[in-house]
């Protein structure tokens, strides 16, 4: 099983997305996944006319993520409540990927990210949930962690100004 980062980008933002990804030595390839596409269509303020792209270093995205295990010292109820029984507390994404998403979102269109472990092909079906909405600066933060199979949106909000 391998991790894959899927990014949904508006068609208008694709040239900038690919240029920035390649400048960071990241590979992108178009992905077709009905689970992700149909879920994105239900979100308000998600990327309009979005296409799906995997972001990798070649092959899979395992080199781009770090996982944090569930703290087994938590009491059973607290652990279930926090993580809904997941074996992974969160996934941290490498800084260059976070910068890629933040910089594309700053161009004026939101981007979405889904992180999933695939046991078979990239078109396998799975259930997604809606996750956080972050500003580009929040995406750049080292404290940004993702829950697997959760769609997170990065977008510029009214009054946003990039911090230095």
- Secondary-structure-based class equals alpha+beta
Estimated radius of gyration: 15 Å
**Low-confidence runs (pLDDT<50, min 5 residues)?**
77-86
Order of helices and strands: EHEHEEHEHEEHEE
Estimate the helix proportion, in percent. 25-40%
Instruction: Give the N-to-C terminal Cα separation.
Output: 38 Å
How many structural units, i.e. domains?
A: 1
Number of helices: 5
Compute the average pLDDT: 80
Strand residue percentage: 25-35%
Main sheet strand line-up: 2-3-1-6-9-7
Largest β-sheet summary: 6 strands, mixed
Categorize the overall geometry: globular
Write down how many β-strands occur, each being a DSSP E stretch of 2 or more residues: 9
Tell me what you see in this structure.
With 164 residues, the chain is an alpha+beta fold. The protein has one domain (2-154). It has 5 helices and 9 strands, in the order βαβαββαβαββαββ. It has helices at residues 14-23, 34-42, 76-83, 95-105, 136-140; strands at residues 2-10, 27-31, 50-56, 65-69, 88-93, 111-118, 129-134, 145-146, 150-154. Strands 2-3-1-6-9-7 form a 6-stranded mixed beta sheet, with helices on both faces. A 3-stranded antiparallel beta sheet has the order 4-5-8. α1 runs antiparallel to α4 (95-105). The longest helix has 11 residues, at 95-105. Residues 77-86 have low confidence and may be disordered.
């Amino acid at each position: 099983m391998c991790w894959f980062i899927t990014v949904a980008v508006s068609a208008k933002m694709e040239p900038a997305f690919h240029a920035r990804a390649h400048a960071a030595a990241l590979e992108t390839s178009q992905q077709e996944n009905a689970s992700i596409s149909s879920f994105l269509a239900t979100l308000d303020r998600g990327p309009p006319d979005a296409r799906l792209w995997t972001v990798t270093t070649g092959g899979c995205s395992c080199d781009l993520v770090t996982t944090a295990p569930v703290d087994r010292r938590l009491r059973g109820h607290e652990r279930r409540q926090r993580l809904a029984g997941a074996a992974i507390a969160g996934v941290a994404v490498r800084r260059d990927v976070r910068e890629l998403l933040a910089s594309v979102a700053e161009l004026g269109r939101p981007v979405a990210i889904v992180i999933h472990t695939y046991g078979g092909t990239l078109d396998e079906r799975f259930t997604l949930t809606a996750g956080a909405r972050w500003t580009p600066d929040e995406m750049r933060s080292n404290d940004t962690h993702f829950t697997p199979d959760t769609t997170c949106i990065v977008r510029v909000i009214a009054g946003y100004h990039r911090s230095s």
